[in-house]
Amino acid sequence: MKSRRDCLFEVVEMEITTVSDVETRRGLTELDVGTLFHCILFAYQKALKDILGTGSAVFVHPVLKTVTRMSERQGINLIRGETIDEVFDNLSRLIEETGFLKEFRFEKLGPEKYVLHLDGCVWASHIPEELKPKDVTCPFALLAMSIFEKVLNGRVRVADSEYFKTGTRTRIELL
Asked: What's the gap between Cα 66 and its chain centre?
């Protein structure tokens, strides 16, 4: 029989396999975590630009390669399709299904030139107010850029996002 002390300090093991498991255990929601990661990323980008100016762009391509490598290692298959158009169409559906964005679409400007349009982003309304992200790239655009580089086996031109009340617009093209 367990003593009162043993019951008081009983450890409940809980396997954490999804974000909602973390929410149950710690009290953070997916939106809280996303907000924190957006803030961290924007703060780093802004600090780099403030200190290094345009030289901060040298960090983008290594970051994109890391995103690709980590996605592959974790089995996150974001590249579905034979052409970049198919891959972007499938990515748009996949991202929209998360519910974090109402619209995630690519406008084709020409061969290997696109504009990523985000609208209805759950973070768009308060991130710009808090951080005033000018001269930084939206995290979703960085994700799209990493996929673009991988599929086309090239390097993207580093582009800042344009921020609006409910979303962003980012040009994506090869150098």
From this structure: 13
Residue 54 has pLDDT above 50, yes or no: yes
User: Tens digits of per-residue pLDDT, 7-17?
Assistant: 444 444 545 55
Collapsed DSSP state (helix, strand, coil) of residue 117: strand
Convert the pLDDT of each residue in 122-133 to its tens digit.
888 766 566 666
- Tokens representing 111 are 């061969």
pTM for this entry? 0.79
Say how far apart CA 33 and CA 36 lie, in whole Å: 5
Q: 111 by DSSP, 3-state: which? A: coil
Structure tokens belonging to residue 88: 């972007």
Say if residue 73 is exposed, middle or buried (CB neighbours under 10 Å; 0-12, 13-18, 19+): exposed
Confirm if 91 and 78 have CB atoms less than 8 A apart: yes
Q: 82 lies in which domain range?
A: 4-173
Task: Provide the number of structural domains found in the chain.
Answer: 1
